[in-house]
Write a structure and sequence with these properties.
With about 450 residues, the chain is α/β, with parallel strands linked by helices. Among the domains are: about 35-115, no CATH class; about 135-265 and about 395-415, no CATH class. The chain has helices at about 1-10, 30-75, 135-145, 155-160, 170-190, 245-260, 275-285, 295-300, 305-320, 325-340, 345-350, 370, 375-380, 400-410, 425-430, 440-445; strands at about 15-20, 25-30, 85-90, 95-100, 105, 110-115, 195-205, 210, 220-230, 235-240, 265-270, 290, 395, 435, 440. It has a 5-stranded mixed β-sheet, sandwiched between helices. Strand 1 and strand 2 form a beta hairpin. Helix 5 crosses helix 14 and helix 8 (about 295-300) runs antiparallel to helix 11.
Length: about 450
């Protein structure tokens, strides 16, 4: 019975041992059952994808049909001198293919004859020249920043979207890149004189792209995101620099000031190792500083053995999630007492900023703390394209990489949410004092 089970298991496995006298066991591939199994699984997968794609096609077709019907019904009473309706349906436009995340969809868009002078029907669902859904425009810069060369884009997208992908040839990528480069140039010259930010998040990002200039091997891309007066998050600047040096950040911040951003934010959030802080103190000296607790936590744990990192991380969370500054300081001192003797470097990393920049967030509304304790708006945006492996063989230009960074963030911003408690932003901009996240009694009486 046992031998039978072993034999059956061997038959079902991918390799069957071949035992011969005087010869070492050699794995002999058994392709038959596995190929049939793989083909069956692949067939099921293709069938499921086809069902989903067909369902999406029918929904889209129904939506554009309904859109046309609503438009025609809106003007059904409008007739010419012969009593004929001015707005009518007139067959279909030529069949067109729309590229979505599951691959291409083929749809037939109804044609509308609108005889009113100077008027014509334009679909809001499926605009005239739309060939791919906007979300695919995010995919292109993501692939570039992951290290995929322009020449390999078609092959990469076929693997993602399926074979026979139309409208995404190498020439299309080149044309899109030129278009986005022009958009980036115009964006970097935009006027900021009527803009004001309450908070900014700063960070430096490294990517898989190996730049054509060998001197740029330590190039870093500087990102600045801000919270506007209405609480929305905006991309403020994208610029390349040598690592995260003060000089590079000075160039970025000086450009903002020259273009009209004369008043700095109330609070800036960033990693403690940035040259950003030195530049900020010169360009916007009145801006308060908050060190990112995610970076701080990672730096502390890096100086501790893995066996204690889990508990240490919980205690760090207890520090910056405390309800008051006093409670946070008590938790910080407790951490230092517990780990100070065994791990002095970790405790030094924690305590060196405690007086100036670790707990600045307590001077701002408690509703905003979840946003201003870390640089998460930047971290989450670039989580999938950060440098994790060796750089690619192909070279990218400085402008192209800057453009792709800009495009990725600019498209991602559509998913950003307003900061919580944004109605308190005017009070922050007025300089009203908060203590442990709450208005003081004097300020509440004035309000």
């Amino acid at each position: 019975m046992i031998f039978r089970r072993i034999l059956l298991r061997a038959i079902k496995s991918q390799y069957i041992p071949c035992i011969k006298q005087g010869r070492k066991d050699t794995p002999m591939k058994n392709n038959g059952p596995i190929e049939r199994k793989n083909q069956g699984e692949e067939g099921k997968k293709n069938l499921l994808e086809e069902i989903i794609r067909e369902g999406a096609r029918k929904l889209l077709q129904a939506a554009i049909e309904n859109e046309v019907s609503v438009y025609i019904d809106l003007f059904k009473e409008l007739k010419d001198e012969k009593g004929r309706r001015m707005v009518v349906r007139h067959g279909f436009l030529p069949e067109r293919s729309l590229l979505i995340g599951m691959g291409p969809l083929t749809v037939k868009q109804p044609r509308v004859r609108d005889k009113r002078e100077g008027n014509s029907f334009t679909s809001a669902i499926l605009p005239r020249y739309l060939r791919r859904v906007p979300s695919l425009d995010n995919l292109i810069p993501t692939l570039y920043l992951k290290g995929i060369s322009t020449g390999d884009f078609t092959q990469a997208l076929e693997a993602i979207l399926g074979e026979n992908v139309k409208g995404l040839s190498t020439s299309t990528f080149v044309r899109l890149k030129r278009q986005w480069e022009q958009e980036y140039r115009e964006w970097t010259r935009r006027d900021l004189s009527n803009t004001r930010y309450v908070y900014v998040w700063a960070d430096g990002i490294y990517f898989n792209v190996r730049l054509e200039d060998t001197e740029n091997k330590r190039q870093c891309f500087l990102i600045l995101i801000g919270a506007a007066e209405d609480g929305t998050k905006e991309l403020i600047a994208v610029l390349d620099g040598y690592r995260e040096s003060k000089l590079s950040w000075m160039e970025l911040l000086s450009s903002l000031r020259e273009r009209g951003l004369s008043e700095g934010p109330k609070l800036a959030i960033g990693d403690g190792g940035l040259g950003f802080w030195a530049a900020l103190r010169e360009i916007y000296p009145n801006t308060k500083e908050q060190r990112c607790w995610v970076h701080k936590t990672a730096n502390i744990l890096d100086k501790m053995p893995k066996s204690v990192q889990s508990k240490a991380k919980e205690k760090i969370h207890d520090i910056y999630k405390a309800d008051t500054r006093e409670q946070a300081l008590v938790a910080l001192n407790g951490f230092a007492s517990l780990y100070g003797r065994k791990f002095p470097e970790a405790c030094e990393c924690l305590t060196k900023d405690k007086e100036d920049t670790l707990f600045t967030f307590y001077d701002f509304p408690a509703e905003h703390w979840i946003h201003i304790r870390t640089t998460n708006p930047i971290e989450s945006t670039f989580a999938t394209v950060r440098l994790r492996t060796e750089k690619t063989k192909g070279c990218g230009t400085r402008l192209a990489t800057l453009t792709m960074v800009f495009k990725l963030v600019y498209e991602t911003r559509k998913t950003w949410k307003k900061i919580k408690g944004y109605k308190l932003i005017p009070k922050v901009l007025e300089g009203i004092t908060f203590v442990d996240g709450e208005l003081t009694e004097e300020e509440e009486q004035v309000a």
